[in-house]
Amino acid sequence: MASKMPAARDANNNRITISMAEQRQYQKPLICEFCDTSVGFVNAFTRNVGEDIVAIDPYFRLSKEHKHSATCRYNVQGQVTVIAQESEGDIFAALQGNRYELRLLAVKRAVEQLREIANKKRNPDSEANTGANEKIYVEAEKRLGAYVNSALRVLKVRAACIEHAEIEDVLQLVFDGVRLPWCDFYFEDDEYFRCFSQVNQATIRVPIAINGTVKNISIVRRQTGNLSVMDLVRPYRKTDQAAVLDAACFSIWSPDPNAFQTYKKEEKILAFGLWESRGVKESTNKKAGSPIKTFRNHELRLWPVTKSQLCAVKS
Ligand SMILES: [Zn+2]
Fold first, then answer.
1. Quick check: 285 pLDDT over 70?
2. Could you tell me the distance, in angstroms and rounded to a whole number, from the CA of residue 67 to the centre of ligand 1?
3. Which residues pair with 214 in a beta bridge?
4. Domain boundaries, position 22
């Protein structure tokens, strides 16, 4: 169980950073920065995703069949334990053997309640804006925001892992009493089409987490006001027609024009919450001369109600 690491130590006990490792400025063998387990260096590489090239940053990783010590900062079990113990409310439950359960129904309720509060506050005649009630709403917002934030903290731990397996033994996912596998909750871009099908066919909305790369941030003008939109890099999938390509179009929306100002193009992000399907819509390829004439866009959107539903992560 391990996460990607930004530094290591070498045979002379020198701290080796990513850039030093890239220039081979170290003496083998490499060990973990905080315990003595064996680690290796993985160079940067790129992947093609749809029409974009996505860079994967270099990192140190645990050597095969090695483990971090129980107290090491990179031990996933230790990281999850700290987050679960520090969190309030009923988002986490302790299981036997130092394991935890993340209760997604509690997370969903927190998101829904935050949305209700936001809607009420927008209405000037609402009870939410009268004296004593205002304080109650502010406190509720703080408490619910903390719940969502705890969930985001464990998602960051997952984002630093290489596979689901590294976290799923330590942290089980449960929605309304039913166990959910990590592969149906947390999606990277190679799983976007499966994610789309799952959300599109769901009869009950379950919060899910999307790990993606920012393709574009823009403003969409509407009569009711401007909206901010952050599009994620879109994977493609071949269809049975050579001129038609499936595209997975995932985007994050906000009525706040500054909502995504801290993010930038090509940044890796994590977006978590009640994603909604917009179905499949065809669009014409605007690139003249391309053998692809039509895209079949599989569209999912997220409207976050709190900043804790989004964060930047390392690739
Ligand atoms: Zn370690």
1. yes
2. 7
3. 232
4. 7-73
